Amino acid sequence: MREVAIVGAGMTRFGEIWESSLRDLFVEAAAGALNSAGADHVDSIFVGNMSGGQFVGQEHLGPLMADHLGMAGVAAARVESACASGGMALNMGFMAVASGCSDAVLVAGVEKMTDGADVTNVLASAADQETEVYHGITFPGLYAMIARAHMEKHGTTEEDLAWVAVKNHKHGSLNPKAQFRGEVTVEQVLRSSMVAEPLRLLHCSPVSDGAAAVLLCPLDQAEKYTDKPVKVIGTGVATDSIALADRKDPAFLGSVEKSAERAYKMAGVTPKDIQVAEVHDCFAIAEICCLEASGLIEKGKGAKAAASGVTSLGGRIPVNTSGGLKSKGHPVGATGVAQAIEVFEQLRGESGERQVEDARIGLTQNMGGSGASSVVHIYQGV
Amino acid sequence: MREVAIVGAGMTRFGEIWESSLRDLFVEAAAGALNSAGADHVDSIFVGNMSGGQFVGQEHLGPLMADHLGMAGVAAARVESACASGGMALNMGFMAVASGCSDAVLVAGVEKMTDGADVTNVLASAADQETEVYHGITFPGLYAMIARAHMEKHGTTEEDLAWVAVKNHKHGSLNPKAQFRGEVTVEQVLRSSMVAEPLRLLHCSPVSDGAAAVLLCPLDQAEKYTDKPVKVIGTGVATDSIALADRKDPAFLGSVEKSAERAYKMAGVTPKDIQVAEVHDCFAIAEICCLEASGLIEKGKGAKAAASGVTSLGGRIPVNTSGGLKSKGHPVGATGVAQAIEVFEQLRGESGERQVEDARIGLTQNMGGSGASSVVHIYQGV
Hints:
Two copies of one chain form a homodimer. Chain A is α/β, with parallel strands linked by helices. Chain A folds into two domains: 4-118 and 207-230, Peroxisomal Thiolase, Chain A, domain 1; 137-205 and 233-381, Peroxisomal Thiolase, Chain A, domain 1. Chain A has helices spanning 22-36, 52-56, 61-68, 85-98, 119-124, 139-154, 158-172, 186-191, 254-267, 284-293, 305-308, 324-328, 332-347; strands at residues 4-11, 44-48, 75-80, 105-112, 194-196, 199-200, 209-218, 230-239, 276-278, 361-368, 373-381. Chain A starts with a strand and ends with a strand. Strand 3 (75-80) of chain A pairs antiparallel with strand 3 of chain B, so a sheet runs across the interface.
């Protein structure tokens, strides 16, 4: 298996981007990634996207995006795993390079959510239509049940959940690409309107437009593009039952644990080696569960991580230095690739005010649905 | 790069399968593939599917299908490239095995099209929404324009188109899994109702439900599953402009040519070496154009291939011995995998009345949209 490196990155700002279409967003991010590496050609393109079909009536994004990038002819395909689509596209791009099938691979995630679709309904199609959605549940409701289970089992409080939002907004205030750059207080979170008890508005990530792209190549060709490549040393994918009701412990995300174990094993590292991480905080409770399941925080101790400062910039293991999905925004198909970009920049020492000192090894964890799929990548600066 | 083999296959019948849901279809095909190889475990699953979201309100098919197969936990993702989704999933599965990331990979294609969605509109989302679909064009219209261009350039006639349908229905009459097992005559085709001039009803593939699955592993582990593995010796993917109007010659499918060239190069064979092929006959004109662009028939000579018997069972290069999309049916995400199964069985000598004598090397070509994407695989019996 060939060693794989990220050698370039580009992304749009995240937010309600009324002036850009789905294809505009893709091209801006992709061109940014190519230009950052001085690349004018790729062999293949993997587009992570949850639902161009339902959001804007457009499937077949592989050739569409290759065409609009001026690269019609290259291999291209779309990869979907709900909100883990971007991470899954990175996994596919990794395999394309590792196998020897491609020498230059563009991995991009993109979603256009604000063009008038019934967003809650479209997102719900990532849950089990037959046993969940048809009966009226939506994702805020599913994550509210996860939160209740975590509260019952581990004594987690509404204030613990609020601290996740406070931390991530604080990080996001330092990120020029973030959708929300204002800081929030615990009191503001606890006074914000109830969405699905115990989750309030400020416990939830927003609806966003955006795109993110990275350029991959074999490590031994990286010098063509950059003198600061970042190695992808581990990739792990796992699934769980799609319906939350089918899990023994709804507060434990088995797909996150399995995908992390697979990535750690491939990388030859342990959770203790991770110095910076982006995890899937679509709701505040998700960050807590993902930290526990990935081994970055001891099981049952995730709730206090944000409040105690362990996961803040300057803490033992800074988590979601980008602002996370909560503050940076969550254009669902783009999220997994944007996570990779944050860690890529951290390991290159390019994160400015958000820089984690001497970060050498980082991790991203991207999740689909209520944890039915998870993708973990581990990266090392060289 | 590790050598890759297909060691098992399973598929549902194709047709209007009212009694089975999307997940039922998947499980029937997947269990068939696993059972045929005596396998009770896989490392990863790639699901080819065009639009579960628009057809039945269900995205996130990777974990859903893993779960319903009783394999929640394994890696799984959906791959989409419109009607080439199945072929693209096979390409991803190939890379997963070739790279060393997975030792046992299930590649399945599935589509449920008859559950009440506006099928023509959903399929149209594989074309360019902004420059084609919003202005009223649908796929029969796009392929009608391709047919007109081919007629003008090469003198192709309506009767030539009819012969493609006659041949494929004749082949399909021998296939117990086919949606339409009745033979048709040239006169019947030419008397069938006009859909988009010059394409009549019997020039068009039907709307179908169905699923198809194959099991892949490294060639050196194939004996665990079967004593008749079939090697995948070439895989090629390519794109073209998504909008038909952006192509210099609408009658020539550049993505098919490029994807075939890439697959031939990897396989180290030429079109002359191919003894049996399945190509993408979503409309009769598509078979003609795909045969020319893939090099299986000389450019400009595709129109007479069916009428002359060259591409019939018993001819020089039998094409679409399964009945093709025209007669076997076209559950869009399943098609590319079903093509692979036909060639797999041909190279194992298991095609019964449809058997091509002494077939050793075969090819499948699967296309998305009006040729915006194409995937070619080349196979060799061992």
